[in-house]
Amino acid sequence: MEHKTSVRNRVFEELRKVAFPDSRFHFDFGEFITDFEGSSDATQRLIDHPFYQKAKCIFITPDNCLEELRYRALQDGKLILITTYSIKRGFWVLDPAKIDPARYLYAATLDGLEREGEPMSLIDIRDKLPELDFMVTGTGAINEEGVRFGKGHGFFDSEWGMLYRIGKITTDTPSAALVHDCQVLTETLYPEVFDTVADAIYTPTRTIEVEAPHKPTCGIVWDLLDPVMFDTIPPLQELKALEDSGDI
What we know:
By secondary structure, the protein is an alpha/beta fold. The protein has one domain (2-245): Rossmann fold. It is built from 10 helices and 13 strands. It has helices at 2-15, 39-48, 50-54, 67-75, 104-107, 113-116, 122-128, 155-165, 227-232, 234-245, and strands at 19-20, 35-36, 57-60, 79-83, 91-94, 118-120, 134-137, 141-143, 148-149, 175-178, 184-185, 200-202, 207-209. The protein has an 8-stranded mixed β-sheet with strand order 6-5-4-3-7-10-12-13. The longest helix has 14 residues, at 2-15. The model has no long low-confidence stretch (mean pLDDT 94). Keywords: Ligase. GO terms for molecular function: ligase activity. It comes from Vibrio eleionomae. It holds the Pfam family 5-FTHF_cyc-lig.
């Protein structure tokens, strides 16, 4: 934990030079994933990549740096699964066929997604959505082997674990991170058993492909889960109830 904190602090110091402040959290990178200078170039690299081109249904985190990607994905007719901030109000789906194109940009924002999207329980996701083709997240720090250190809350790894347990993703589902170049490290970082390593990293200046990234199959490791997360995130409570009842 001390190592992760040290890495984050070092990266955040450099990130502050290119980051855009958030209207709620200013430059508190422990509370949100920031947008940054050059993110449009990184987004275009992602959109040009075969992972995106082949995808029809994409999970995209609500990070600030991915707002343009969400907008472009709606324009491209792709179905988007997304969580609200901290997952506390759960999963939502943005269906471009059900949203006025004039409101795509608003729907791509954290405030707009709940007004324009549809809330989805895990059962809804399992039974009503197609298999997810691509998982995209922002992050705090990442190395060239795709090992991520996020804000420290473990949201993306929890999202991966929940979607894996209900059968919407597999170890073959590609995941990716969109970051600034200053967030990419050359040093060795060691993933936990539940950490999802990126298949690809998109920055304003390059696309990094990762060979044989680690994809967790453990779902949610309940003994390691922060009790506060369980108490405040309804989808985790739903998953536990489904597992306990044998419904998955």
